[in-house]
Specification:
This protein is an alpha/beta fold. The protein folds into 2 domains: 201 residues, NAD(P)-binding Rossmann-like Domain (Rossmann fold, 3-Layer(aba) Sandwich); 95 residues, UDP-galactose 4-epimerase, domain 1, CATH 3.90.25. The protein contains 10 helices and 13 strands. Helix 1 crosses helix 7 and helix 2 crosses helix 4. The radius of gyration is 20 Å and the shape is globular. The chain starts with a strand and ends with a helix. Pfam families: GDP_Man_Dehyd. This is NAD-dependent dehydratase. It comes from Limnoglobus roseus.
């Protein structure tokens, strides 16, 4: 299968390439602003042909589509940082809604008619209606951040584009995906990075944001398996929630990570007033995805946390080696 991945050099893009490489039988290509793998993904060099492009450059995208003739497209590119989106709303909207519109325009104008997976977010639902209420695909959208609002708009655009100009688009709404090689801009990776620095003696305490929020956390390696299944079995125009179906407080996640260390850890919380509007509790009903694809998570949360902490321990060890070498 000829597969094009936008945002290929990011966290989920890297894990998706790893998964598809293991599966075999695919010709992989990717689009990113810089057509190069970052150091944490350097082992993927040569596994996918990388192309530098801005999604706003519709003409460039049309040329790539004509050259590559993809049968599947996974649309991951966009602005992905919820907290920063409060400070950069215009850029967030341009990347998420404008970039998606430009991609669909390029596809419509090209001679290719691929199956497209649009990757959305469960944050578009906002807070759950009650303590025992799960978000299913029919839940009202109540985004609480510029990031979530821009993704909600792009999600709805993706639905509309299946009607006119008639593109073959399946949507998936992710909740929180975590795992090794994630940027420390995100909470779990940031916790693990700081704990590894404390273990190595380079940091005295861990600084966090609000730990009361509840999140549905899924290993990125499980998430990209859901992508592959939806490309094959998803229904055009439909949307599927992807998550475990139960939540953990960020306090309990941090406690679990600290439990994997043998070091005494001081925790200091520093709250961001801009994030009061962000969803505090986000619970997912994944039954539609499971019914359509038989997908189930394979990684238990504790294994994901261990793998994430071990990754950052490796990063710390490499830093120490460079200093002493």
């Amino acid at each position: 299968m000829r597969i094009l991945i936008t945002g290929v050099t990011g966290f989920l893009g890297g894990h998706l390439v790893e998964h598809l490489r293991t599966e075999g039988g695919h010709t992989l290509a990717g689009v990113s602003r810089q057509a190069a793998w970052s150091p944490e993904w350097s082992h993927l060099a040569g596994t996918a042909k990388l192309h530098a492009a801005e999604l706003s450059d519709t003409a460039r995208l049309e040329t790539l589509l004509d050259d590559l003739q993809p049968e599947w497209i996974v649309h991951l590119a966009g602005y992905a940082n919820t907290g920063r989106s409060f400070h950069e709303p215009a850029r967030c909207w341009a990347d998420n809604l404008g970039g998606t519109q430009s991609l669909y325009t390029a596809i419509a104008h090209s001679g290719v008619r691929p199956r497209i997976l649009f990757v959305s977010t469960g944050l578009i639902y906002g807070d759950a209606e009650g303590p025992d209420v799960l978000c299913d695909e029919r839940s009202v959208l109540k985004p609480g951040s510029p990031y979530a609002a821009s993704k909600a708009a792009a999600d709805l655009l993706s639905y509309q584009a299946t009607r006119s100009p008639g593109l073959d688009i399946v949507r998936v709404r992710l909740f929180n995906q975590i795992g090794p090689r994630q940027s420390p801009d995100y909470a779990v990776a940031n916790f693990a990075r700081q704990l590894a620095a404390i273990e190595s003696g380079r940091q005295a305490f861990i600084e966090t944001g609000d730990l009361s929020a509840e999140r549905d956390l899924t290993d990125a390696r499980d998430v990209v398996r859901a992508f592959r299944l939806l490309l094959e079995k998803g229904v055009a125009g439909e949307v599927y929630n992807a998550g475990r179906g139960h939540t953990r407080t960020m306090q309990s996640v941090l406690d679990a990570l600290i439990g994997l260390t043998k070091t005494r850890v001081e925790v200091r919380q520093k709250l961001d007033p801009n994030r009061k509007a962000d969803a505090a509790v986000s619970r997912v009903d994944p039954r539609k995805l499971i019914a359509a694809t038989k997908w189930q998570p394979r990684y238990e949360l504790e294994q994901t946390l261990r793998d994430t902490l071990d990754y950052w321990r490796g990063v710390e060890s490499a830093k120490s080696g460079r200093k002493t070498g």
